Amino acid sequence: MKDVKVIVLRTAGTNCDKETVFAFELAGAKADLVHINEISRGEKKLDRYQILAIPGGFSYGDDISAGRVLAVEMMNKISAQVDKFVADGKLVIGICNGFQVLVKTGLLPGFNAGEAGSGAAKQSVTLFDNDSGKFDCRWVHLNPVEGNVCVFTQGIETPIYLPIAHGEGKLIFDNEKTRDKLRAAKQGVFKYSDAAGKPGPYPINPNGSEDDLAGICNATGRVFGLMPHPERHVLSTQHPRWTRGEASERGDGFAIFRNAVAFASMEL
Amino acid sequence: MAKKTVKKKTEMNIKIETVGIIGAADDELIEISRSRLLSLNLLEMRKIAAHYKKKGRNPTDAELECLAQTWSEHCKHKVFNGIIDYSENGKKELIDNLFKLTIRKATETIRKKRGAKDWCVSVFEDNAGVVEFDDDWHFAFKVETHNHPSALDPYGGANTGIGGVIRDPLGTGLGATPIFNNNIFCFAPPDLPHDKVPKGILHPKRIFKGVVAGVRDYGNRMGIPTINGSLHFDMRYLGNPLVYCGTGGLIPVGKMEKQARKGDLIVAVGGKTGRDGIHGATFSSLELDHESETTSSGAVQIGNPIVEKKAMDVILQARKLDLYDCITDCGAGGFSSAVGEMGKDTGAELQLEKAPLKYGGLAPWEILLSEAQERMVLSVPPKNLAKFMKLCERENVEAVVIGKFTDTKRFVVKYEGRMVADLDMSFLHAGVPRYPRPAVWNTPKHSVPKVPAPANLTARLEKVLSIYNVASKEWVARQYDHEVQGASVLKPFVGADNDGPSDAAVIAPVLGSPRAIVVSNGIAIRYGDIDPYWMAASAIDEAVRNAVAVGADIDRIAILDNFCWGNPDKPDRLGDLVRASRACFDVAVTYGTPFISGKDSFYNEFAVEGDTIAIPSTLLISAAGIITDARKVVSMDFKSAGNLVYALGVTYDELGGSQYYQTLGHIGNDVPKLNAREAKKMYKALGAAIKKGLVRACHDASDGGLAVALAECAFAGALGARIDARLLPRDKNVKTDESLLFSESNSRFIVEVEAGKEDEFAARFKGLPCAKIGEVTDKKRLVVVGLKGKPVVDADIRKLKAAWQSTLAW
Amino acid sequence: MTTRIEVYIREDLVDAAGEGLIKDIEDLNVKGAKSVRFVRVTEIEGGISKGEARRIASELLSDPVSQRHVIGEVSGPVVDGAWVIEVKFNKGVTDTVADTTLKGIADMGIAGATGAKTSTKVVLRGKISKSDVENIARRLLANSVIQSFSIAKS
Predict the structure, then answer these.
(1) All domains in chain B, ordered by first residue
(2) Which of A99, A208, B204, B294 is the 20 to 30 A CA-CA neighbour of B37?
(3) Domains (ranges, CATH) in chain C?
(4) Tens of pLDDT along B751-798?
(5) A126 vs C16, C65, C96: nearest CB
């Protein structure tokens, strides 16, 4: 297997970076923590890597709104490198705050780009204040959407169990057309559900997301974002009920990192 | 919109005042202290006047402020380290340095006894206490209080409370990486009618919500999991809510030694300096009143967690590269305290005009004393400066050289070349006078309920489950990220539906390694109304037994003390302190659990209509233990029907100070006592049984007694239980079911043991109070048979859970 | 020159902070509050062109999916007869969002901004007396230690 190199992008207010590095390394990749200034100043290059991870946290304090300021910085300062990375078919994952960033840059779901995909995509969905009105840290079940095109989640066929920790995670569309297009292109990846895969109100859908969506990908399935934290469930003792014998050796989130590394190793 | 006019205030910037204290009369000295909010008493002012008389000049404003701050109760702990003229039920004695004779002595005694096996690394010296963790890491832990600012601005106060305590481990040794936060709050009941809230006090619900939001927004943004805490309610916290915030961290072995050297540069890293928090240290030595809002608004600080996070990120990288010799945080007293402390053995010279400011118009003494947040001070050798600055610049962190360390043993402060302060380090740090304070303790007598309890106690159990002190705090805990960093092993809420109250939190902070840290706390407020000795003993026992309940080894538990008290100039408050401290010594030594760090906060009183409300004397004990294998710990929820339920520990007739009595409006007199020697034997046996895998669930009995503990085990596991209370180990004086079920006697557990392992389990408790009292059922009912052989509790566990959850389900 | 930009949540979406405040108003025992909407106000100092202000408002300060914005003095969701409470920080109090806003503006390549301030506007509908509105402002919204407030009726 070819060595897979992951860049975990950080900036002021990033956290979850160390556990994201740990999860990728557990899956066999080599992961570097890189500050965005190192990219924008040309000290490090994105194209040296096969996977870009934007971890959770509160980039720039989530001031103004979650992920907005980092999204603006990426679009204005490193967009050429990021766009090329995506155009090359490399993998991008945004977790929690990283998902908020990907949505606010328009990279997810990647609609409204100019002619033949030229130019940057425009924002068409957002992650808005939870219906509960507060930050919520709890465990949720995620039902994989049948036939979804995401390369990170292939082989996941039954609900997985991950924690969320966010205040702005309610996914909403700008209009019905976007919703229909996302459905038709199988870009919905995970839906909040109960353990059996059935949808339901709070706390099953913890934030009020439209269509119960917890994670989406772009049309190629290679850019993926989700609100829950797969990197916080790669070990058995991270499961909230491992003392009740409910955990297996690897946590449910591990498959996402394993899939990404395996795909990158073979295809990129 | 009004146009902003910018006035030039250059002349004010460099205004350095001289204060005429030489030859001043006593009433003038008192007036100087009062009008400048110095919180220095006459004795201290006289000592300063005499010192300057000898020098032949008057002090500058900055020198006076600097002395006031360094000599403040907040920094010098004058009460605890002072002389106490003590009278206990009429018996008199003189206590010279209560802290040294109790808390510190306990730790010294334990360390000496352990000898080569001592695992303490640094105690009571640095910004946090440090113990061994594994071959690569030491563990640092500190708990602070931020009460006064939180009373005025709950959000900002709590914000800066958590922000401040994070900087403590970060400023310990050469810097510890924060791995968890904990927090404990005490408020007045949130349902208090608005017209019962005196002028100048915020409504307790607003304080509650504001404090939670403040801790949430800061802690979550720092990426540090908040893993443990508790909430307590009493009317006497109306004017003075208590906000305890703690942070634990890991520091690489070999990075403990710190010493600023002559020639090292003083580098300020992080936030800019503003007028925030001026007089914070001295302010915390004042009683609040309705004027406090206006006179002390400077003491309130607003936090910016991202500035702190950025500073932390670069400091931890610089730590790895060995770029600095010494580090400390800018807390109370600002630069004055941080630099004064770092340069204690050498000397230091500051150039205040170099400090980055938020806005103009600050007098030099204000820059020196400002408690603006998010600032750390580092001592950087000149050869490393360029590398350090480059690191900061790359991550948009402000870092500025503001002076250098010298070998003059003087603390010299200049502003554009002019002398602002020139102090002898020895007078600054050792000059504060000591004098005796009177203290009194007389055993009180309280009322007890006279009406006998009803035969069926189910309704009373529901009531106890629903009161603020006992009810589920999930509404609070879920607003904190307790999973970030991925280390979580036992979460704040556990069980079949992730909603049962865990006794302690466990994290395995080095991802991939099973070595873990258990964190718990103990607090027993109402017992202090009967006897602060047993309050303190109970708080230590609760913290330790919470840790033991999940699988901690009592031989590896360290504890921290946080005393929040009323005005120590009032003899009864100080008498409480003597009683409580003595218990701390007695219990810690018997348990072998050293104090590694602590803090005290006095003057928690509020003046209202010619009277003062003092908080109840409140001692928080935080415990942290090292667990070799995280995979061996247990949670408190019942696991399977058919398993057996055991009770460990003796129940005494001890309803005094109980939550049960509180629901009936009484305090009582039979406060829970503690036999620490016996308890320790049981804790060792339980720890070994858990390690052997003989325990499926374990829960300590505390607030609400055995009845509440059993209900919690049952509904957390979504299972029922059938219990025969007649089988409980009990003292002969226990003659009623209410005493049996609701007494809060210390050192007791409910344990679930797998069917078939009973003999192996019971054999480990030979000679100790241990009894099989029933079994876990799949009936979803908790049935407890009382002393007369009939059920005294018979309830649907879902109903019990609803009673427990609905109170704080905001 | 000061450029004032107001951002508010799309009218058909739940304003969670507003809902929270309604609960707190009920706790105050004040009746009659029908709806509460929050508006975030940003005042940018310095030479900003109209085109730049539009970019700042649409790309940085507001979310095109969930929010709307207005540039200038007029506020968005104000309905006739609603109470408008504006809460501002006192001078010298840290305004972190303002600092971040300046960073974002600089990242966009806009050079003229020299300072920024944020404040919160609360639009309160319902039959409530002025003294109750003052009570709400004082007890729930502004802390006199760090903030001041003004009340107007639209």
Answers:
(1) 15-80 (1.10.8.750), 464-484+635-810 (3.90.650.10)
(2) B204
(3) 2-153 (3.30.1280.10)
(4) 999 999 999 999 999 999 999 999 999 999 999 999 999 999 999 999
(5) C65
